[in-house]
Specification:
Layout lengths: L1 E2 L3 H14 L8 H12 L5 E3 L9 E9 L1 H4 L6 H15 L5 E4 L8 H10 L3 E5 L12 H4 L7 E4 L5 E4 L4 H14 L3 E10 H7 L1 E2 L1 H17 L4 H10 L6 E17 L2 E10 L6 E7 L1 E7 L2 E5 L3 E6 L5 E2 L9 E7 L8 H7 L18
Parallel strand pairs: 2-5, 3-4, 4-5
Antiparallel strand pairs: 1-2, 3-8, 5-9, 6-7, 6-8, 10-11, 10-17, 11-12, 12-13, 13-14, 15-16, 15-17
Organism: Sphingomonas colocasiae
InterPro entries: S-Me-THD-like_C (IPR048350), S-Me-THD_C_sf (IPR024071), S-Me-THD_N (IPR010318), S-Me-THD_N_sf (IPR027479)
Protein name: DUF917 domain-containing protein
């Protein structure tokens, strides 16, 4: 078990979550501030391995729902989180034994930790995708038959909706519509599951991975080492998953468009110095495809992240701006995401891209 009892670890975990969030999942800063305040008050989130819980334990996911551009404008309310927990336990008729992140994203990895700090309920070192995704049905939970509903959606004003959907695609549409009516940001208690399901269907070890990633970037920077060499070493140590820098350059054009509850757009990156190479990265909340000189080099569900080329700080999609000097990172997705069953839900065509998935190792 890890008790997160210092601000440095919180900042490292937030940094790592932004990288795994592939540009989406919300800006972690608001959740990070909330957690720092809890630590100063002597309330600490606890992270435990999935294997330590009983098969019949009750596990629940807590997530923010809405466009990342809206999430960053809101503070985290302990009253809202505790109200949501109380309402969920009353609705499901049992105590929540453990929390789990629906995805690894800047904000959505922070919210379960925030609730852990104020409730004492531990968070599993796992999540439902190992990255961030824009739709509720795009998780290993859903793909393996663990439904997102019945779920509870609540806003800061105390408005509550209980959703029971025929499938998770319908749940996505219903949650998105209700969230729009509640001011474009809600918190959801969803994916009720057993301990056995959490062990079988979640991507394991991802919260600790955020700590490893964030710590590697910070310590390399503080020690004057090559940030990206250290980072690639840490990423490559996990199940031999491929990781490489796809492009190094300057953003010369970026388009942001928030519509229908999502953040759409693209960034065009020119090569450094005399280079005539160009990289275009598209996003729908998360970065979905990177093309260098018109050729695809990484595509969903493999991970694409942009980092500041001087500091190594990962950037969310809404942070991207003209003139930023960045490195584009590609990172192979967990094997669970690359299965034929998963690609039916997570493949490029489900994001409106007119091509099939190819592993980034084959696109080198």
């Amino acid at each position: 078990m890890l008790t997160v009892n210092n601000v440095t670890d919180i900042k490292d975990m937030a940094r790592g979550a932004v990288l795994l969030g592939t540009g989406g999942g919300g800006d972690p800063y608001v959740g990070q501030l909330f957690l720092q305040a809890q630590i100063k008050a002597g309330r600490y989130p606890k992270v435990i391995a999935s294997e330590t819980i009983a098969d019949d334990a009750f596990v629940l996911s807590i997530a923010g729902i809405g466009a990342p551009t809206v999430i960053v404008e809101h503070l985290v309310s302990d009253k809202t989180l505790l109200r949501l927990l109380a309402r969920a336990e009353a609705f499901y008729g049992r105590r929540v034994d453990a929390l789990i992140s629906a995805e690894m994203g800047g904000a959505n990895s922070m919210f379960p930790l925030a609730l852990s700090a104020i409730s004492g309920i531990p968070v599993l070192d796992a999540d439902g995708i190992g990255r961030a995704v824009p739709h509720i049905e795009m998780t290993t939970f859903s793909i393996n038959g663990c439904k997102a509903t019945p779920c509870i959606v609540m806003d800061d004003s105390g408005n509550v909706a209980v959703i029971e959907a025929v499938d998770d695609r319908a749940a996505e549409d219903l949650c998105r519509s209700i969230t729009a009516a509640m001011g474009a940001l809600t918190f959801g208690a969803l994916y009720p599951m057993s301990g056995a399901q959490a062990k079988a269907f979640a991507v394991q070890g991802t919260l600790m991975q955020t700590l490893e990633i964030g710590r590697a970037i910070r310590t390399a920077r503080e020690g004057g080492r090559d940030i990206f060499a250290d980072l690639l070493d840490v990423l490559g140590s996990r199940d031999d998953r491929a990781a490489r820098i796809l492009f190094d350059g300057k953003i010369v054009d970026v388009v942001h468009d928030t519509r229908d509850g999502w953040h759409f757009g693209h960034a065009r990156i020119a090569g450094i110095g005399d280079s005539t190479d160009e990289c275009i990265v598209e996003f729908q909340n998360e970065l979905t495809v990177a093309r260098v000189n018109g050729r695809t080099v990484t595509i969903v569900p493999d991970l694409i992240t942009m980092l500041d080329r001087e500091t190594g700080e990962p950037l969310t999609a809404e942070m991207l701006a003209y003139g930023q000097r960045v490195k584009v990172l590609g990172y192979a997705a967990d094997a669970m995401l690359r299965s034929a069953q998963s690609l039916e839900v997570l493949g490029p065509r489900m994001f409106g891209l007119n091509e099939d998935f190819q592993p980034m190792e084959e696109l080198a």
